[in-house]
Design goal:
single chain, 208 residues, mainly beta, 2 helices, elongated
Length: 208
């Protein structure tokens, strides 16, 4: 019986509860497809080890990089313009069988997130030209948090599995408090930052 697996996953959608789009479909070039960056702006890899027939332990790494071009197109201020994050997660899961090949997987864990967020605080026009430069303030992330997850896993063969799940990550410790205080005091961005990341992932794994 295979006790280990390595999985590749992609985040189809992310909700940070700060009015940023779930999926980036805003482009300057109208010839760009709305599915550009749909899958590869959020990717990850994980290793799982079975503890019992109905439980396992996992270590996963997820990379997320997104630019919200709709912010610039509508000249919004006090809005997140870009996110670039690396998340390391340690988690424990349990399984509830739904038949011979399907199971419901649920669990929780701890997370460490390293990255950067950029917030639009204003715009600068180049003289008489109809061109603008974005003024950004950045916050560096070296944050810790907790997560919960739940989803469906399908294993058609002993060596292959397919899965989809929902994850909610909550940040409990924020590193760059000075940048947050500056955004709140100087630019009156009182609702920053969002401490939550709700995502939908799907992927496949190889068991051994």
């Amino acid at each position: 019986t295979q006790k280990n697996s390595i999985s590749l996953q992609t985040g189809v959608a992310h909700c940070f509860f700060d009015k940023t789009p779930l999926i980036n479909t805003y482009f300057f070039d109208k010839t760009s497809s709305s599915t550009d960056r749909l899958l590869y702006n959020s990717i990850g890899i994980s290793f799982e080890h079975k503890l019992t027939a109905k439980s396992n332990f996992s270590i996963s790494y997820d990379y997320y990089n997104e630019i919200y071009l709709s912010v610039f197109k509508t000249f919004q201020t006090n809005a997140v313009f870009q996110r670039n994050t690396n998340t390391l997660k340690f988690a424990y899961h349990q399984f509830y069988p739904l038949g011979s090949h399907f199971s419901f997987k649920y669990g929780g864990g701890i997370n460490y997130r390293l990255g950067q967020e950029s917030v639009v605080v204003g715009y600068h026009q180049f003289g008489i030209l109809n061109a603008y430069e974005i003024n950004l303030e950045s916050r560096f992330q070296s944050d810790f948090g907790l997560s919960l997850s739940g989803g469906i896993e399908y294993q058609p063969t002993p060596w292959l599995k397919l899965f989809s799940n929902f994850n909610i990550l909550g940040i409990t410790y924020i590193y760059d408090k000075e940048a947050i205080q500056r955004l709140q005091d100087v630019y009156n961005y009182k609702k920053y930052p969002s401490r939550f990341d709700f995502s939908c992932q799907m992927g496949l794994g190889f068991c051994f």
